[in-house]
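Onboarding guide, step 5: your first structure request.
Type a short instruction followed by the sequence, for example:

Predict the 3D structure of this protein.
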Amino acid sequence: MNIFAELSLVLVVAAVLSGIMRILKQPLVVGYVLTGLLVGPHMLGFVKTGEEMSIFSEMGIAILLFIVGLHLNPKELKHFGSASILIGLFQILFTTLFGFLISQFLNFSITESLYIGLALSFSSTIVVLKFLSDKKDLEKLYGRLAIGALLLEDVAAALALVAVSGIAGGDAGTASFLLLVIKGLALLLVVSLVSYYVLPKLAPFFARSQEYLFLFALAWGFGFATLFGLLGFSVEIGALIAGVSLSILPYSAEISSRLKPLRDFFIVMFFIFLGFQISFDSISKMLVPLGIFTAYVFFIKPLVFAVWTEILGYSKKTAFLVGTSLGQISEFSLIFVLLGFKVGHVSEDVVSLITVLGFVSIALSSYLIAYAEKVYPVFIPLLRIFERKVPNNEVDSTKIYDTVLFGCNRAGYDFIKIFKEFGTQFLAVDFDPDIIKELTTKGINCIYGDAEDAEFLEEISIEKAKIVISTIPEFETNNYLLEKIRAVNENSLVLLLSYNIDDAIKLYENGATYVILPHFVGGEFAVKIISDAGFDVQKLGVKRGEHVAYLRERRALGHAHPVWNHNK
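The system replies with structure tokens like these:
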């Protein structure tokens, strides 16, 4: 079959098996992996090489880590960096040591035992981030701690890969390792300077077109990933740093929302490719080690994470959720042992063992993550032993705004003046990069985004806002926004703008709290001024002066009054 036909067949099989998984209420990831196993060379053999899936898989990993980086603003990393480092570091040391000892007990060589121990210590960034994202827990405390630990593991995995290459290369390899460290530090310095001093000036140009912003983000992410790959690092690290470099921009949420559908497709291909690689030819004699290591990764490793997290002062529930999130081995584990096989450090049996262990642990972990809240009560007695009497105060960093304003020009300007004092509890959203730039310089909490983008609305947790105001005059946009809010929140105040009476009535019927019709409001306001002033010319003169000053201020800002359509 040609490439198009092969990929079409793979997607059809994936859709069928995933549909069955959904009917059975199982994680869809299991269906993806089974697809790769079924169509691969070890079963039906519909796909022979899997090169295309391998490329798609790598692209999926890069996009996923790029999106993760977009959520890791360097200014916010300090809130969970040290705890995550300690959690990740202790877990790597403990899991590697005991994994090594178990391997020795199972009669693996010292070198193979070291490889297995390290491979068991790495958790799957792809699996954890996918489930945290699906559960909308990326910004929760346990999610941030898990991500921090994963980042440390990814760095350790990258160093391990470089070290293996260095050992294989002798003295030249050691020199290459030191040179790589120097290049890495230089790259981070350059990226930091560009991120803070160059990108903020160029970003408004990119953001003038959503299509171009999407293209720029892809080019930036893949460009950095490729650059890091060419310089001897992993493309995954490059993609992550590329995302972090854009995270300080007010357009990061919009970029993230635009990339998510693309990410979902390529991540499906990653799991299919994982199943594609599974071979049972040499695993029959590995059943006992496979069972022991599966129990170790699925039970002992999460317990280590949980206990150590509690010792650091977090509550037993946070500790449990951190542990259950990281109870599997990583895609880096597979790469790591495969490199060891290429340089002659481990046998093919070890490669097969780690590959199948990866599938089994990811499948089991998927269930554990999905049902963690239901399983948690069973482990409370055990976790209570290690919990501090007075745990640390824990606050999720999920960004919830009391008031969200869509549209900051003309009518929105007056709301901004009122709500500015709310600080971070107020969020201004606009689709014009020039307005975002101006609001940013004034210290107003703002973000670039589209009110009709469902992913973006989820990013800012619109359903949790107490007040939502839209000064966008388009009925379709306001009605879509209203439907999204009312689907999950009947109590929030939703104020919308309309230039049309019929549209205003429809918005009321669909649940709007209040609809502003500027021309009628203007008449009501004029009547109120005259009523308050009566026949006092001096009072009216004061109002006149205030209004003239206000109009000049708006003219200076470039605000123009919309042209009235007499047909409406």
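Each response can be followed by summary notes, for example: The chain has three domains: 1-49, 50-384, 403-516.
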